[in-house]
Design a protein that fits this description.
Elements (H helix, E strand, L loop, with lengths): L3 E6 L5 E7 L2 E8 L12 H23 L8 E7 L3 H18 L3 E5 H7 L17 E6 L4 E6 L5 E6 L5 H11 L7 H8 L22 H17 L3 H32 L3 E5 L6 H14 L2 E3 L10 H13 L17
Parallel strand pairs: 1-4, 4-5, 6-9, 9-10
Antiparallel strand pairs: 1-2, 2-3, 6-7, 7-8
Helix pairs in contact: 1-2, 3-9, 4-6, 4-7, 5-7, 7-8
The protein binds 5'-O-[(R)-(carboxyoxy)(hydroxy)phosphoryl]adenosine and zinc ion (ZN).
């Protein structure tokens, strides 16, 4: 019997719907929200309203593009959290209504699990490699920075996390200080390619164990620019590429130093990254090099599946369906949702 799952992702500012059939991706539609750009960050109230406007056309297109009929859907999956509550409510309510109308089961998905399981996404004709287990994954997004082990039974274990800002937040906040648009990560990445990464030195945290911290770097960057601008009001403009390259190098080193430590202490050689920041070319390049040095098998998600998408929710839900792990109609979204 074929197994077809519709999944919905609405945890932040992307409304996305995807269809997975028998573990293969058939469609993945994402509607982004330009409305936040001029505010320098996501405005939760505006995000919920945009989800409300986008969700029906996005689901409709995902079903059409997959070439299936609504009655072929065997289960409806949704992101339960973590995320913005108003945004999550739109996806959750839609999924509940849709599942009820189709008389099919509901499957809740933890957004963080889904980023990690994006490594198991496949399309017909593009079989790709999937990680062996146990798998060590660095999850780096706008809201989270975590070191996670996927155990042999596919259960997830968190072994490290940021104690303050996430890596994506560090990129975005430092970009804002330089007057770059939101989200700043991709802009820093682009400018860094033309800069000298060794020109400036920024603070790296000294934290024991496998936890991360990025707030010290952000403050160091802010004060350094504030002082430099006092001497030359065009300092940022004249040094933007080098500032971006040096900042990116520091963030990448902070991320990879702990990943190396985690791989050494766990003995795991199946190593990957997941989440929005994995689109960063400096991180991808550094990981390829470190992977070779440490003889790891490296897994980098395809660029289309780094930032938020429903395809990753659908593949996670597929595994949950096979496990018989369903949710009830009274499930509520969770702004905070641990691994
Ligand atoms: O996973 P994601 O789409 O959303 C969250 O769940 O947070 O990640 C978004 C984050 C933003 O902070 C964005 O600046 C960052 O990913 N990002 C990047 C790049 N592309 C996206 N950061 C650095 N370099 C990039 N190329
Ligand atoms: Zn995410």
């Amino acid at each position: 019997m074929p197994l077809t799952i519709l999944a919905i992702e609405s945890s932040c500012d992307d409304t996305s719907a995807a269809i997975v059939k028998d573990g293969y991706l058939l469609s993945n539609l994402i509607a982004g929200q330009e409305v936040h750009r001029s505010y320098g960050g996501v405005v939760p109230e505006l995000a919920s309203r945009a989800h409300q406007a986008n969700i029906v056309p996005v689901v409709d297109q995902a079903v059409r593009k997959a070439g299936i009929d609504k009655k072929d859907i065997d289960a409806v999956a949704f992101t339960r959290g973590p995320g913005l509550l108003g945004s999550l409510l739109v996806g959750t309510s839609f999924a509940k209504g849709f599942a009820l109308a189709l008389n099919k089961p509901l499957i809740e998905v933890n957004h963080l699990h889904a980023h990690v399981f994006s490594h198991w996404l496949r399309e017909k004709g593009q079989e790709g490699r999937v990680p062996g287990l146990p798998f060590l994954c660095l999850l780096v997004s706008g809201g989270h920075t975590k070191l996670i082990i996927v155990e042999k039974d596919m259960k997830l274990k968190e072994i490290g996390s940021t104690i303050d800002d996430a890596a994506g937040e560090a990129f975005d906040k430092c970009a804002k200080i330089m007057g770059l648009p939101y989200p700043g990560g991709p802009f820093i990445d682009k400018l860094a390619a033309r800069g000298n990464p060794d020109r400036f030195n920024f603070t790296k945290p000294r934290i024991e164990g496998l936890d991360y911290s990025f707030s010290g770097l952000k403050t160091n960057f802010l004060y350094f620019l504030r002082d430099s601008v006092k001497g030359n009001y065009r300092f940022i403009e004249e040094n933007k590429n080098d500032l971006c390259a040096s900042l990116q190098k520091t963030i990448v080193e902070i991320l990879t130093d702990k990943l190396i430590k985690a791989a050494a202490s766990s003995g795991i050689k199946e190593v990957g990254i997941a989440g929005g920041v994995t689109a960063n070319s400096g991180l991808r390049k550094a990981l390829a090099k470190i992977g070779q040095e440490h003889e790891w098998n490296i897994y980098l998600p395809e660029l289309g599946y780094t930032t938020d998408n429903a395809a990753m929710i659908a593949i996670t839900a597929y595994f949950k369906y096979l496990d018989g792990d369903f949710s009830s109609q009274d499930t509520v979204p969770l702004a905070r949702f641990n691994i």
